[in-house]
Amino acid sequence: MTAVTTQNALATYVVRHADDNVVLGQRLAEYISRAPELEEDLAIGNLTLDHIGVADHLFTYAAKIDGCDLSGDDLVMFRSERDYTNLLLVEQRHDGFDDLIARQFLFDAYQLPFWEALSASNDETIAGIAQRAAKEARYHLRHSSMWMVRLGDGTPESHTRIQASIDRLWRFTSEMFETDALDREMVESGLGVDTSTLRETWESSVDAVLEEATLTRPQDSFQTSGGRSGMHTEYLGPMLAEMQWLQRSQPGMSW
Amino acid sequence: MAPAIPAGDVVVITKTPKLKHARGLLERVVDPDLPFLSIRDIAILRNVEVSEEGTVTVTITPTYSGCPAMETIRSDIRAALVEGGFHSVDVETVYSPAWTTEWMSDDAKRKLAENHIAPPDSVLAIVPEVLCPLCSSDDIRTVSEFGSTACKSIMVCTQCGEPFDYFKAI
Questions:
Q1: What is this model's ipTM?
Q2: Could you tell me how many helices (H) and strands (E) chain B has, helices first?
């Protein structure tokens, strides 16, 4: 099989953001049935649907504009770890509900202004997908913020644990606001978003929630990145292996 | 020589009954999660066209990005039109403008309430007004922002104790 990658610049850009959502969706799906309460299992199921749903729309569109002979499903199931271009934050594993909420919150606070900005894309389909995703992201952020406060301002045990999760994930947050040549090309053509301009919005919503949650904002010390160029942490590979196994062993299988 | 352009009336006569027929068939296609609402009621159906050759093009828009009902709706649309005599059916998805509960008719909202689902308030409402579908009290509490489907959240009435779904305004 030839390499499963997109050639067109816009398609490659769309795939990045689809990757963020499919990886986070898969991570969330791993946790369904383990939430602290039944309503939260429903919530996680809904979040999963939203993230995988938006990824599906983006992958399908990327495959169409790329003009290659690939389907959206091919892009999800037959690309290897190094071809995935998601942010490192979304692939991080969770040892518990605290990690899941911290990861979700840090990402939601970025996704909402991202989708809002992308709603102004010159590309009508991308703008439409972003408009819908922004509405959903508003719910996601409200939900993860509520849990941040509930855990941070909860018991000494929950406070300690959510603080540790935030501390551990903090080094993956700067990557969300980094831009590379492809980002700049997309911004110049009016198709994409300059994520460096979203940092202020992200910081103000994160700071407000951390304060209400009686949590301490970690120092901006060591930061790591590389997801956009396929350099991942050790957690993505095993996740993809589980996610892709069935399609790789029985290619093209469907219900 | 270019073929003569048919007079407007000729087109209308051949097209309209087919379009009307197609629209009528689509009235029977419902949202599988809310089977008392047609796809027109809930504003998933955006456009219907019938070409001169009889191909029906149905344009729909998804409610939520990950709504699993969309695939069922697509196949139900095809099935309804094929059973009704149309042999060529295209179902297209349009993303922009994004679906909003503002497009739901008052009739659709009434049907929701009749089925014990609190209908969505205006998206512009800062604090949405939600009434208990059983006793109409506004003394209600949110149990979970996320419910049995992507479009609903779970509430409970503090007055009568009834747990119910609220159709989120988005």
A1: 0.74
A2: 3, 9
